[in-house]
Amino acid sequence: MNKYPALLGALALLFSAAMGSAASPQAASTDTSNGAPVPYTLTMGDMMNTLIQPRHAKLGLAGEAQNWPLAQYALVEIRQSFAGIIKAQPKFMGLPVGQLVDAALTQPMNAVDAAIKEQNVHKFAAAYAQLTAGCNACHAAVEHPFIVIKVPDASAFPNQDFSPRQ
Ligand code: HEC
Questions:
Q1: H helix runs in 89-161, sequence order
Q2: Is residue 158 part of a domain?
Q3: How far apart (Å, rounded) are the C-alpha atoms in residues 136 and 105?
């Protein structure tokens, strides 16, 4: 009758093991939360992956499409994300994250801002390449040189239109 007897058997075993360990004093001593949910704290990698990487891509896609209002918005968003990250994680490997971000990104972000205000696609491309190099400079500085960011060669967002409004 059941197609997955082996799987069900394994689950039943896991379940009984879990019930058993919940009742054992040994397990209780290692579980400091008493089974209550513990808020998930984002790691630096989590924040880079969820906040920074997509916003870096969106900024590039908006600028390439010469959608200046969207590019301006994306720049504000990525700046806000970095401001939040610096507050959430002031140090990484003992290094001051705020100073690292400032050294790597402030000047290129200002250049991106200026290019957007001038609506100059060539200046934007140059400034955005500089910004991208800044990402990699920080990764190298914090011993993650294998995380290499590049100018996006395609959109990763099939549900967002980056072209300018008519
Ligand atoms: C403070 C310096 C710093 C700057 C500036 C920085 N990063 Fe990072 N980034 C890190 C660190 C540190 C990690 C590794 C974090 C970890 O392992 O928990 C990381 C990891 C990443 C990762 C890997 C996350 C994953 O799970 O795959 C991506 C993607 C990334 N950064 C994107 C970017 C982009 C895009 C920029 C530029 C807009 C940027 N980063 C600028 C410090 C920085």
A1: 97-101, 107-118, 121-141
A2: no
A3: 10
The range of the structural domain enclosing residue 76 comes to: 44-141
Q: State whether 99 and 125 are in the same domain.
A: yes
Residue 97: CB within 6 Å of ligand 1?
A: yes
For ligand 1, atom 3, name the residue with the nearest CA. 138
Taking only the tens place, the pLDDT of each residue in 132-165 is: 999 999 999 999 999 999 999 999 999 999 999 9
92 DSSP β-pair partners: 95
Q: How close is the Cα of 10 to the center of ligand 1, in Å?
A: 39
Q: At what angle do helices 53-64 and 121-141 cross, to 10 degrees?
A: 160
Helices (H), 31-165: 44-47, 53-64, 68-88, 97-101, 107-118, 121-141
pTM comes to: 0.85
- Joined tokens for residue 87: 């507050």
Residue 65: its pLDDT value, please? 98
Taking the centre of ligand 1 as the mean of its atom positions, its distance from the CA of residue 48, in whole angstroms, is: 5
